[in-house]
Amino acid sequence: MLSRVAYGGWPDNVRLTNGTIELITTLTVGPRVIRFAFIDGANVMKEYAGQLGGTRETEWQIRGGHRLWHAPEVKPRTYALDNSPVALEEVGEFGFIARPNPETENGIQKEIEVLMDPAENRVTLFHRITNIAPWDIELSPWTPTVMDAGGISIVPLPAKRSHTEVVLPELPLVLWPYTDMADPRLSWGTRYITFSQDTQKPPNKFGLANKDGWAAYLVHGTLFVKYFDYDPSEVYPDMGCNYETFSNEEMLEVESMGPLTLLGPGETVEHVETWRIFADVPLITDEASIDRIIRPLVES
User: What is the per-residue pLDDT for 220?
Assistant: First the structure.
């Protein structure tokens, strides 16, 4: 069911619910998918209390939740203001398209289409960027989801194979100038990389080619899983990343990226994610428990 609601100090937002889960997206600004949760349950997404209800600011606001950006990250291009009203197009009873004002300074038009499964705890998001300029534009759709504090992210690694069977490298692992590989929040495991959010720790980030096509975040007893594609024939931004994660004292971001695409005038690129949430999942960090509890949910 789709409805228009007030939320977080903004008078106009769109809410989707199937009676079990709900998703709320801002229309006064953004758009931001600002809430994804079980009805009456804790939000898995971060909400920046001091930015809720704000509009028409002179500087870009993170606000929290989920947004559509484009890579590679460049200032000021990536940080175009998105603080004005968003157009809504309803798509049946369980879907909508949120379309902000065009980014004329960047020559692009963004939109996010959200479709909720009427029976399962699942939504699918179609992120689209159209070139509205009279020249070619190269970019990658980039979809950061800002998760609430206090959780742990889980990133799968490819199954191990013998060095006599495979002699070439498997995937890139990409580091930033501030990446700290000795950070105790990070566990570089055999089957998973885990990254805990800590309200006392400074920024850290890494990226990789996530060939399994999923990543998870566990917070407030709720497991959030994001699914996305990886195409080995394509070129991805940031030295080959289709997945990146960033954390600071306030939140942790779960980010997927599409291939770098050269868009001619009028052309559109689309990047698809599917989200699922699961209730009553214990906060676990060891690989055996992830294999036993998390993996079956992800693959169900």
Answer: 97
CB 140 within 8 A of CB 259: yes
Positions of E strands within 135-260: 137-147, 152-156, 173-175, 186-188, 192-196, 204-208, 214-219, 222-227, 243-247, 252-257
Distance CA 18, CA 262 (A): 38
What structural domains does the chain harbor? 2-298 (2.70.98.10)
DSSP run (H or E) holding 178: none
Read off the pLDDT of residues 60-110 as tens digits, 9 standing for 90 and up: 999 999 999 999 999 999 999 999 999 999 999 999 999 999 999 999 999
Global pTM value: 0.97
Torsion over CA: 109, 43, 200, 207 (sign)? negative
Cis peptide before 203 (omega within 30 of 0): no
Report residue 115 as tokens.
């479709």
Calpha distance 38→19 (Å, rounded): 9
Q: What's the whole-number mean pLDDT along residues 208-220?
A: 98
Strand, coil or helix: 287: helix
Q: Report how far residue 57's alpha carbon sits from residue 70's, in angstroms, rounded to the nearest whole number.
A: 21
Structure token digits, residue 158: 């490819």
Measured distance between the N- and C-terminal CA atoms of the chain, rounded to whole angstroms? 25
